[in-house]
TrEMBL record:
<feature type="compositionally biased region" description="Basic residues">
    <location>
        <begin position="206"/>
        <end position="217"/>
    </location>
</feature>
<keyword id="KW-0378">Hydrolase</keyword>
<dbReference type="GO" id="GO:0016798">
    <property type="term" value="F:hydrolase activity, acting on glycosyl bonds"/>
</dbReference>
<dbReference type="Pfam" id="PF02245">
    <property type="entry name" value="Pur_DNA_glyco"/>
</dbReference>
<dbReference type="InterPro" id="IPR036995">
    <property type="entry name" value="MPG_sf"/>
</dbReference>
<keyword id="KW-0234">DNA repair</keyword>
<dbReference type="InterPro" id="IPR003180">
    <property type="entry name" value="MPG"/>
</dbReference>
<comment type="similarity">
    <text>Belongs to the DNA glycosylase MPG family.</text>
</comment>
<keyword id="KW-0227">DNA damage</keyword>
<dbReference type="InterPro" id="IPR011034">
    <property type="entry name" value="Formyl_transferase-like_C_sf"/>
</dbReference>
<feature type="region of interest" description="Disordered">
    <location>
        <begin position="163"/>
        <end position="217"/>
    </location>
</feature>
<protein>
    <recommendedName>
        <fullName>Putative 3-methyladenine DNA glycosylase</fullName>
        <ecNumber>3.2.2.-</ecNumber>
    </recommendedName>
</protein>
<keyword id="KW-0326">Glycosidase</keyword>
Length: 217
């Protein structure tokens, strides 16, 4: 457990920068999730950057839709999407207003409220696995589409917010290809993680889905 993290809130200006600046700078920051059941605090250890209209791996690559509209800003909001018919993933919108980009929160270390996360992640073998992967992170924090578009700076006690935390030293920050991204966006080294942290998820290359062959009749 990380001791004595800086509890100074980040500002909206932090997110109003290029996504490739924001993403690695989110490592070590404290994500706070507030709800009726209690509060969870998580130190971010792994993230991925998605650069909107110039990024074939981004949901916004082909322009604005009803699904991705929150990605176009303003910065400092959340983009939550549903995938594979069963999982939610949490992203933080960044960059200038009107230009879509965001950071997928892939993994973290839960330092406060682990008992709440355990109730939702009953398959986790230990606390290091509670938020080890983007779907696990969202499940542990009880994040779903109801939080899509939530403002990190929406009043004194927003549902989600970010504190300064304890950023790692630069020599511990690593980057590499994004997990599960195929096509022209497969090789961008836009996944960032803290080297040696046990909560970081394993890298998996994109595996194209195979359609079952039709048998001749």
């Amino acid at each position: 457990m990380t001791k004595n993290p800086d509890r100074t809130p980040l500002t909206r200006d932090f997110f109003a920068r290029d996504v490739l600046e924001v993403a690695p700078d989110l490592l070590g920051r404290t994500l706070v999730r507030r709800e009726a059941a209690g509060t969870i605090e998580l130190r971010l250890t792994e993230v991925e950057a998605y650069a909107g209209e110039i990024d074939p791996g981004s949901h916004a690559f082909r322009g604005r839709t009803a699904r991705n509209s929150v990605m176009f800003g303003p910065p400092g909001h959340t983009y939550v999407y549903f995938t594979y018919g069963m999982w939610h993933c949490l992203n933080l919108v960044c960059g200038p207003d009107g230009h879509a980009s965001g950071v997928l929160l892939r993994a973290g270390e839960i330092n406060v409220g682990a008992h709440l996360a355990r109730d939702r992640r009953i398959s986790a073998r230990n606390d290091k696995e509670l938020a080890k992967g983007p779907a696990r992170l969202a499940t542990a924090l009880d994040v779903d589409r109801d939080l899509n578009g939530s403002d990190l700076f929406g009043g004194p006690t927003p549902a989600l917010s970010i504190l300064h935390g304890t950023p790692p030293s630069r020599d511990l920050v690593r980057s590499g290809p994004r997990t599960g991204v195929g096509g022209d966006g497969a090789h961008q080294p836009w996944r960032f993680w803290i080297e040696g942290d046990p909560t970081v998820s394993p890298y998996r290359a994109h595996a194209p889905r195979r359609r079952p062959s039709r048998k001749a009749t």
